[in-house]
Amino acid sequence: MSVTNSLELRRATADARLFGVCAGLARSWNVDPTLVRVGFVILTLFSNGLVFALYLATALVLPTDVSDEPPIHRMFPATRTWSTPKIIGVVAAVTAIVALTTQGMAPGLLFVMAITGAVIAWGRRHHRRRGVPARVGALGPAPSPTASEFERLAYAWQSRQYAVYTGAPLDVVEPAAAPVDDPGRNRPWLFALVGMGIVGVTAAALDAAGVAVPAGAWPAAMLGVLGLTLVWVARPGRPSRRRPTLMVTATVLCALATAFSMSDAPRVPAHLPTIAVSDVTAYADVTSLPREIKADVGSPHLDLTDMEITDNRTVNVSVDFGGVEIDAPKQGNIIVRYTVDAGSATVLGTDREGANLSDTVERITDPAAPTLTLDVHVGFGDVEVKSR
Amino acid sequence: MKRPDTIALVVGLMALAIAALGLWHAFGTVNWSAVGIAFPILLVLVGVSGLATTRPRS
């Protein structure tokens, strides 16, 4: 396998999950590909798929690490005479036009674009600061069983470099394990035992002073000491590279004991997500209208067009993810109070978009007549109240 | 530069969080609604820190 100049941004085929763009970016920025993938998925979710379109566009113009020809040259041979900036400009322009056509210039879109730009700028800076060898050569054959210690360690080092810069799995010869004799390995247990002793003495002193120490405090305090010890053990510069014997196991057992000690705690009520179907529900009588419509996910649609408002009524409609659509009564007084954490609100002729929206819109035709009040809350989604 | 021990770090941080919760429950009244928000956020932060400590280094 040939490995090309890693300073160039290329798709990484060895570690690709789809087209290798995230793996290529991770290699270029010298970070874990999983971080880039997680960021990509989050940005995709928050951009209504725009970032995925950018991903596809990037996959189109980037060559792989085993080929110098980008896919766009194979798909559109006429682009072979174009310069790289021209190709990138045209693809970016097409992507932007598609995004604007399908989604509009939403503030959230600008936010996502700004975040994406900041991430790329950070990655480029990170790349320059850390520096990456200009070229990573192909990995040679593994050393023979009769190879010297130096040859074996040198090969292990080369294979690590190869894996870091190509994203290839690290399944090559590893150096010998550290010697079994590791006197510093269990020293943290001394720290933990001293800490537990201090906790015990403190608790006994409190008990002697007449302060009641609940039984549940003991495992929690021990767990705290073990947790502190593990965080201390995790520090990069620790002389012994091995974890203290059974410390993780003891910590997990202590955590279970702490959890059991809290078993008399009031439980959070079991709450299954409620889903509101998007079928249209028509109400002709204000008294038949429920006072509360609540859903975690969904888009309830209330048709109140033919409703006659014969009585004052307040209805709370709340949806966390989705939207609310209401066809307002043709006649009568109506007040709509809405809040939207992120999304849009089209209410009785007003139109807003963005985050933390909240407003009150009224249609009062006869101040002496009964009024229907709609309190609408949507977490992420759209509110639409229209009057025919 | 040597890497931190990711498993020890993640288990240690989670142990500290559970210990804090246990002490809170032992000596006071736990606000479970606040815990319901804080713990998922803490899990995400611990997970991200675990990922960050495992990233390749040159």
Can you put this structure into words, describing what you see?
The complex is a heterodimer of chains A (388) and B (58). Chain A has helices spanning 21-29, 33-46, 50-61, 71-75, 84-103, 107-130, 149-166, 187-208, 217-233, 247-261, and strands at residues 275-276, 280-282, 292-298, 301-303, 313-328, 333-347, 350-363, 371-387. Chain A has 388 residues and is α/β, with parallel strands linked by helices. In chain A, strands 1, 2, 3, 4, 5, 6, 7 and 8 form an eight-stranded mixed β-sheet that branches. The N and C termini of chain A lie far apart (67 Å). Helix content of chain B is 76%, strand content 0%. Chain B has two helices and no strands. The longest helix of chain B is centred in the N-terminal third of the chain and has 22 residues, at 6-27. The mean pLDDT of chain B is 86. The interface between A and B is large, with 51 and 35 residues.
Helix and strand arrangement:
The complex is a heterodimer of chains A (388) and B (58).
Chain A: H1 21-29, H2 33-46, H3 50-61, H4 71-75, H5 84-103, H6 107-130, H7 149-166, H8 187-208, H9 217-233, H10 247-261, E1 275-276, E2 280-282, E3 292-298, E4 301-303, E5 313-328, E6 333-347, E7 350-363, E8 371-387
Parallel strand pairs in A: 1-3, 2-4, 3-5, 4-5, 5-8, 6-8
Antiparallel strand pairs in A: 6-7
Helix pairs in contact in A: 1-2, 3-5, 8-9, 9-10
Chain B: H1 6-27, H2 32-53
Helix pairs in contact in B: 1-2
